[in-house]
Automatic annotation (TrEMBL):
Organism: Hydrogenophaga bisanensis
Gene3D superfamilies assigned to the protein according to its UniProt record, in alphabetical order: RutC-like
Pfam families: FkbO_Hyg5-like_N (PF21168)
InterPro entries documented for this protein: FkbO_Hyg5-like_N, RutC-like_sf
Organism domain of life: Bacteria
Name of the featured protein: Chorismatase FkbO/Hyg5-like N-terminal domain-containing protein
Domain Chorismatase FkbO/Hyg5-like N-terminal, first and last residues per copy: 54-180
Length: 328
C-alpha cells in the first residue's frame, strides 16, 4: 500500500486532486471539489474563520466512484466515503431512525462490494440532535437506526465497533463520512468510562455503537483515531454547567485513552502534543476560553474549535483526536 498522510488545516487546492482520498471542511462553504468532502457550515474559532480543510492524501492517484448516493475514493485497501441524505420537510417525527438505517445500509453494501468490510471511523452530523423529545429524542432515534443497520449487516454492535462521533448542527442533511479498510481495527476503551455500547437504558432504548478509540494498521502505518470524547465518568455527565471543568475532564479521558492505546500500540507510544484535535463547543461565547485551555494543555498541538451540539444536552464540549506513526 502506498503511503498516506493527513493534511491538517491546510489549503488542499495545491495538492494533486487525484491523490486526495477524502476530507473535511469547516467554516465557509467552498466551490465544488472533486473528492468526497464533508463540509460543516458551522462557526469556527479564531484564525480559521475563513475556512479550514483537512484530508487524507495518498502518494499516488486513487480510484473513485459514486454508489447509492455515496461518493467514495479508494486507496488500495482503504476507502473513504460520504453520504448525505435530506430529511422530509417538514421532518417526519421519528423519521431520522429510518433515514439513518437507510444510510448505513447503503454504506455496508458498498463496503461489501469493495471487499473492504471493516468500518474504522465514522463522522455523523445531523440537524436538531435533541429534537422530538416528547416522542424519542433524535439522537436516540439515530442510535436505534444505526444499530439496526449493523445487526442487519451481520456486524457486531458491541466490542468490535468503529470509532465515531455524532454531533448536532443547526441545519442540513444527515451527513455521514467514513473510513473503512481491508483489515479490522483494534478497539481501545477507556478505563475511566463504561463502554458506550454498554450504557444503561436511561440513555435510550439502544446504546451507541462506537469504541472510545481504535488503532488501525494499514501496511507500514499505525493510526490512532479517538472518538468524540466528553466529560463523562462511568456513564454519567460530570461538571454540569461548567465548560472549563468539562474540558479538563475531557482531556483526562483523552489522556486515559491514549495511555490505554499505548499499551497496544506496535509503532511506539503516542503523545498528546503530536495528535491533531477537533473540539466541538455548544455555546459560541465559550469557544475562546475552551480554545485557550486546550492550546495550553496540549502543548502546541493542532486544535480547531467549532460550534456544534453535543449528544447530551448537559455536555458543553466534546473533543476528538487523531495521529499516526510509521510501522516498521
Amino acid at each position: 500500500m502506498g503511503f498516506l498522510t493527513f493534511n491538517v488545516g491546510g489549503d488542499l487546492s495545491d495538492i494533486d486532486t487525484s491523490c486526495i482520498l477524502g476530507g473535511f471542511g469547516l467554516g465557509l462553504t467552498p466551490a465544488n471539489v472533486p473528492w468526497p468532502m464533508q463540509w460543516l457550515g458551522v462557526p469556527v474559532h479564531g484564525e480559521t474563520t475563513q475556512g479550514w480543510q483537512e484530508g487524507w492524501v495518498a502518494d499516488r492517484a486513487v480510484a473513485s466512484g459514486v454508489r447509492d448516493g455515496i461518493r467514495w475514493r479508494r486507496h488500495e485497501g482503504l476507502l473513504f466515503g460520504l453520504i448525505e441524505l435530506a430529511e422530509a420537510s417538514p421532518r417526519v417525527i421519528g423519521g431520522l431512525e429510518a433515514l439513518t438505517n437507510d444510510a448505513y445500509h447503503r454504506l455496508f453494501r458498498l463496503l461489501d462490494e469493495q471487499g473492504l468490510p471493516h468500518l474504522w471511523r465514522v463522522w455523523n452530523y445531523m440537524a436538531d440532535i435533541h429534537g422530538d423529545a416528547e416522542t424519542l429524542e433524535r439522537y436516540r432515534q439515530f442510535n436505534r437506526g444505526r444499530a439496526r443497520a449493523f445487526e442487519q449487516a451481520a456486524r457486531s454492535v458491541t466490542g468490535q465497533v468503529p470509532a465515531a462521533c455524532a454531533l448536532g448542527v443547526a441545519r442540513g442533511p444527515l451527513s455521514i463520512a467514513f473510513l473503512a479498510g481491508a483489515v479490522p481495527v483494534q478497539p481501545v476503551e477507556n478505563p475511566r468510562q463504561i463502554s458506550a455500547w454498554r450504557y444503561p437504558a436511561q440513555y435510550g432504548p439502544q446504546s451507541p455503537t462506537f469504541s472510545r478509540a481504535v488503532l488501525a494498521r494499514p501496511p507500514g502505518q499505525e493510526w490512532l483515531m479517538i472518538s468524540g470524547t466528553a466529560s463523562i465518568v462511568g456513564h454519567e455527565t460530570v461538571h454540569r454547567g461548567d465548560v472549563l471543568a468539562q474540558t479538563r475532564e475531557t482531556l483526562a479521558n483523552i489522556e486515559a485513552v491514549v495511555a490505554q492505546a499505548n499499551r497496544l500500540a506496535q509503532a511506539g507510544p503516542f503523545t498528546l502534543p503530536e495528535l491533531s484535535y477537533r473540539a466541538y463547543v455548544r455555546q459560541l461565547e465559550d469557544m475562546p476560553e475552551v480554545s485557550r485551555l486546550l492550546a495550553h494543555a496540549l502543548g502546541g498541538a493542532s486544535v480547531v474549535c467549532v460550534q456544534a451540539d453535543v449528544c447530551r444536552e448537559d455536555l458543553l464540549v466534546e473533543v476528538e483526536a487523531m495521529g499516526w506513526h510509521p510501522l516498521a
